[in-house]
Each structure stands twice: as C-alpha cells, then as structure tokens.
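1st attempt posting a full record on here, be nice pls
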Amino acid sequence: MADPLLVRVARREPAERTPVWFMRQAGRSLPEYRALRERHPFFELAGTPELCAEVTLQPVRRHHVDAAVLFADIMTPVVGMGIDVRLVEGVGPVIDHPIARRADVERLSVTEPDENVLAAIRIVRAELAPDRALVGFCGGPFTVAGYLVEGKPSRDFARTKALMYREADTWHALMEKLADQFSRYVAAQVAAGADVVQLFDSWVGALSPADYTEYVEPYSARILAAVDVPTIHFGTGATEELVEQLARAGGDVIGVDWRLPLAAVPEDRAVQGNLDPAVLLGPWDHVEAAALDVLAQGAARSHVFNLGHGVLPQTDPDVLTRLAALVRDRTAVVRA
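the predicted structure (as tokens):
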C-alpha cells in the first residue's frame, strides 16, 4: 500500500493531488471540541489518551483533510522537566517561576516522553485511514525557551534576548536540555506511529538571521535529525533570509506564513502554506480567490496546502470543510 499522500509530497514524490490539512485544526473552532472542553480542562484532554485521540480525529472526520495533527500543547514536553505551566485563557502558557539563571537550568530534568501522549498516537494511527498521515508535533526550541524565560507570551522577547547576550553559557545550556528533551519526544512519537513531524517555531521571527545561526540553528537541527520520517519546519514571521536558514537547519518541507510567497522556500524542499487564517473570516468568494492564488503559487512545487498559521477560534468550521474540498477538487483536476 502506498504511503499517505502527505508523506509522498513531503518527499517530493509524484502525487495525484495537493494534500491539505490545517495547523490547529484540532480544537478551537469545532463545536464537538468545545463540548469536551466544557467537561475537561485542556491538560486533562491532552493527557488522557482516549480523549486526546478523539480530539485529534475530530477534524479529519469533519473536514476530510489528509492528515490528523496530534492534539498537544507546545509546552507538553517540558511539563515533565520540572516546569509548572498554566494555560491562561486569552493569554497562553504562563510560567510562575521563569528561568533567570544557570541554577534554574540545572534543575531541569531530561525525562522520558509522556506515555499518555504516545498511547494517544497509537490509538489515532489505528483508527486513521492508511492514506491519511498522522503529524507529530513539537514546539521549536527558541519559542519554548522564550516562554520559559519570559514567563508568558511576549512581543519583544527582551528578557530572552538579554539572557542570550549576557549569559550565553546559560542560554546554550538551556537549549541543550530542550534539544535533548525534544529529540526524545519526537523520536518516541514516530515510534508510536507518527508519519510526519512538524517543528513549530512560533516566535522565531523575532530573531535576526545572525542570532538564529548562533543561538538556535544547531538545536533545531538536532531535533529535526532525531527522526527518520519526513519533517516540516515552520517559523512564523520569518524573513526570506531566515527561511533559508530554517531550511539549512532541516526539514523536508518548509512552511511559510502569509507574509511571504511560497517561492521564498528553496527549490530543493517541498513547501507548506500559506493562506492567511483571517481570510477565512471573510466571504466565500474572497476565501476561494485567495486559496486559488496559493494553489497557483504551489502548482509547480511539491506543495502541502495549509494556513499561514493556526485556525482562528472564531472560524466557521463549514468554511474549513469547504476549503478542504476546494483544494482536493481543483488540484485533482489539474493533475489528472
């Protein structure tokens, strides 16, 4: 039996059409997810294998997308390291005792991956159709380190950069531990059944290319090299130069957000993206035109259709279903 469509496109193999899935498709906009959230806190949902698997599969059933993406938080792998994380509604991850000095880093433990996450992956892979991929998920080391140092989401990452510049040894010690933890995490996801792994560096666009090279690239490269399945490397707000550096760090597929054309991705990689999630809040004729423009940009490439970031909570699920059908229908005709 052939590998899932997403896997084949990630390897830049010939494919019958463009695969489509959406970052943050699990949860947020789905009423069936919100019904579960009324009864279960986030970490209970993500940490209970049967519930996590259910949320992971919900958008596949509804939207008929080509991949399920593991329902997990970007902070999931650090919870076991000795970090207390609270998810605050409307804010994001909050750390009550941020990392500020070398002793804080020394207290962090590199641990085995959470078995509940792996059990959820096994359930999903058993229930998912063979032609659909299961995408494993891991936050980028810079993004996660930023939360750990800032204590909450930040616009300028001043504390994080101050640590990088003033205490480089402490920064590199932190990144070493995160790279070790995340490498184990993604390798275990693949062993449990993940077909693809995405490294999601939400805040990497806050860095200059020079800082990325010195302070981040080796660690992202180590995580991406820890698995033998196709990988997707995505960074929000990246410049064209930074996209080239992301590709140098690794990733069979390079994702870009809506601020860059798909052509910004080097030709030797598949490309993922890049419809602005906010477009889905407008009328269908605008959604359709914007989606067709993305498909036109990706027509000559191995292209995975996705948004330029995650699904917004206020998105109408029916629009996502309609968009997925549009991508399937239009690209199947073009490539028939």
